[in-house]
Amino acid sequence: xxxxxxxxxxxxxxxxxxxxxxxxxxxxxxxxxxxxxxxxxxxxxxxxxxxxxxxxxxxxxxxxxxxxxxxxxxxxxxxxxxxxxxxxxxxxxxxxxxxxxxxxxxxxxxxxxxxxxxxxxxxxxxxxxxxxxxxxxxxxxxxxxxxxxxxxxxxxxxxxxxxxxxxxxxxxxxxxxxxxxxxxxxxxxxxxxxxxxxxxxxxxxxxxxxxxxxxxxxxxxxxxxxxxxxxxxxxxxxxxxxxxxxxxxxxxxxxxxxxxxxxxxxxxxxxxxxxxxxxxxxxxxxxxxxxxxxxxxxxxxxxxxxxxxxxxxxxxxxxxxxxxxxxxxxxxxxxxxxxxxxx
Length: 343
Fold this sequence. Notes:
Layout: H1 28-37, E1 39-45, E2 50-59, E3 62-65, H2 67-70, E4 73-80, E5 83-86, E6 89-93, E7 98-102, E8 125-131, E9 137-150, E10 153-158, E11 170-173, E12 178-185, E13 193-197, H3 199-206, H4 233-242, H5 246-259, H6 265-276, H7 280-293, H8 298-310, H9 314-327, H10 329-339
Antiparallel strand pairs: 1-2, 1-4, 2-3, 3-7, 4-5, 6-7, 8-9, 8-11, 9-10, 10-13, 11-12, 12-13
Helix pairs in contact: 4-5, 5-6, 6-7, 6-8, 7-8, 8-9, 8-10, 9-10
């Protein structure tokens, strides 16, 4: 993984680490063809070293990967079925960290189905598939933890961990649709794994410029590796959350909410931060603003119910359980058991 810019996240953003999963197995009949389609990428760099990653076939002979895998490459090969196939050309969008590789010899590799990250909801099951440390193919199952709208797509934050070499691999729904490209994570923090949206792939495929011969890319930092003041708010708050700097989260989410008044996410994160420092009345106010902006945010209703429970507002908890049951019966049942109340 190539460094790009000096940021607060420089010491945190690495594709390595331990993970968490939830108890669900992949459908072998559904996923075996997908596993056979994910390929390994080997980039020879200017210094003579190697950068290893993964890639996913999106049209015949064309594969999507992360630009930080190939950014310093003078040649790139795809490893498929035990053979090494040269990549003929590349179409790059370094700012989005999305590169398309052209390898016409591999036009028979089965193309994966694509979905939309914007169709996901928090709690949905996902599978992260890529080559761990550039070696064996890894399959990790987890859930959507947060969804971050950005630039015509939705960056997916999940608990589906992935390691170095998995960059450019695929994030799939459990019915086998590609919804994200594995991209970066916060070092040492479970549930802080980020994938760029598969929604961006169509725009790259639709470009009419030619694929370029493999050569080092312009030194353009991807959106997630900008200087701190230019990072998306969700990245800046995620860093503080991972460090459990809750008062700083409260302060930053105030700026975030002012900058994006129609976005419920800063209010949700703000409510969580208030709860962490036992300011439960403030947590209630923030979370009520979140569900006002988006009444379908089941997890926000859940957190609101928890905050009201800590204030012993049991009538409010009952009302919330009733609303939550319409969105997520499992969360509603959990809140009902923990509060000892029924709607």
